[in-house]
Write a structure and sequence with these properties.
single chain, 1 helix, 5-stranded antiparallel beta sheet, alpha+beta, 21% helix
Length: 68
Amino acid sequence: MCESGNTVITGYSTTTDYAQSLCSDVVVAVEWVIGNCALCSSDDCLVGGVAATYGNGDLPIMVRGTNV
């Protein structure tokens, strides 16, 4: 889990108790959620969504927060 301000990024395995991916692959999922699941008005943005880690469908990444 990564937390910064009002934003939380969490990964979880869909098949086992453990899954791993490169940070650069996790970033692809995070960027996809921010780019496709944000609702912005003025200076405020709400983000909430899930995307699979690039190259690893067994490791979804959840992003939720405000002002991302």
